[in-house]
Amino acid sequence: MTNNDFEMSSDQDSEEELLELYAAGKLKPGLNIPVDPKKEFINNIGGLNDALKSFQSSLPWSERLDIVAETAPLAPELSMELTEQQQFLKAGKIDEVALNDFKRETMFHRHAQTAVMTGIELLHKHNIPTHRPEDYFAEMFKSDEHMQKVRHALLQRKVELEQTEKVRRIRQEKKLAKEKRVAAVQEKHKQKRDLNENIKKFRKGLRNDLDFLETDGSKKNQKQENSKEKKNLTRSQHKRKGKDAKYGFGGKKRGMKGNTKESTFGGSMKSKGKNRGSINKKKRMSMKNK
Fold first, then answer.
1. Position 252 in a domain
2. Dist CA 112 CA 69 (whole Å)
3. Is residue 163 part of a domain?
4. Is residue 3 part of a domain?
5. Is the residue at 119 inside a domain?
6. Final residue of a domain: which of 189, 215, 241?
7. Cα–Cα dist 18/30, whole Å
8. What pLDDT score does 3 carry?
């Protein structure tokens, strides 16, 4: 017989022995399997009252702060809500456990309400303040060193965000400037191509005018300069410029009303001499005829 066969036969014998013992009633809980002892709950009301009297007689109420209060009357809104919950229970919308929970919470609320009212009266009776004074200084839970670290971290984060925004803005400006330069170069090449095409057309006789030599670029530059000058002028300068355009803008005043060669003869001296000679000749001819 091998070792495996021996082990299998011994296991079978042990199982059969356990079955025989269990059938005879000799196997009971606790002999082979540990069982937790049964807990006994004792509501020792007398002991609790004795413990309460022990510290009630030795300490004042300001040190104990114990309150025995009855249940406050049910508020109208809670009564209405309780009635609705009962209707929901009858309709089958909620179960009884939910209604019991609501009643329990309502009872806690009513007990707390009575205890608060009684406690405030007792506090006033023992000259214990119930409101925080205006100059009350509460020590912070965090230390000053910790708050300084938090402040330093916040400032550092703010600086990092500002630097990131600045770098992003600089990149955007560089990108826009590059696009403007590329657009300006492309416009310049386009104007050059158009000029070469117009020159070729003029040489071939397809075009007779030379208007293409007056490029629109000079006109645009002049308009841009004028618009820049207008933008740079203040309100008073705009007003002065308008008056100068309407009434003149100063200059030489002395001798402005004196007669000149043009105002006297209405033209050049040569033409006036010729006219004068012709007038004198006509006069002489008329006198001879007389």
1. no
2. 9
3. yes
4. no
5. yes
6. 215
7. 15
8. 47
Read off the tokens for 196.
């070469």
Three-class secondary structure of residue 233 per DSSP: coil
Of 141, 136, 125, nearest to 67 (Cα)?
A: 125
One domain for residues 210 and 155: yes
CA 94: distance to chain centroid?
A: 44
Residue 277 to residue 204: CA distance in whole angstroms = 56
The count of domains in the chain is 2
Q: Structure tokens of 46?
A: 């007398």
Q: Given phi > 0 = left and psi -120 to 50 = alpha, else beta, which region is 194?
A: alpha
**268-284: b or e for each residue (b if 16 or more CB lie within 10 Å)?**
eeeeeeeeeeeeeeeee
Indicate the burial class of 58 (C-beta count within 10 angstroms; 0-12, 13-18, 19 or more): exposed
- Do the beta carbons of residue 126 and residue 62 sit within 8 Å? yes
pTM of the predicted model over 0.70: no
pLDDT per 10-residue tile (average), the chain, 290 residues? 51 73 69 67 86 77 84 84 84 80 88 91 89 79 88 94 93 92 92 88 79 61 67 77 75 71 61 51 59
Calculate ∠ Cα 30-32-35, nearest 5°: 35
Domain residues for the domain of 207 are: 151-215
Same domain, 206 and 163: yes
The pLDDT of residue 33 is 59
> What letter represents residue 258's amino acid?
G
What pLDDT is recorded for position 253? 66
**Final residue before a domain boundary, out of 215, 247, 263:** 215
Residue 288 corresponds to which tokens in the numbers above?
């001879």
Distances (CA, A) of 54 to 58, 61, 213: 7, 13, 117
Q: Which of 206, 210, 230, 226 is closest to 218 using CA atoms?
A: 226
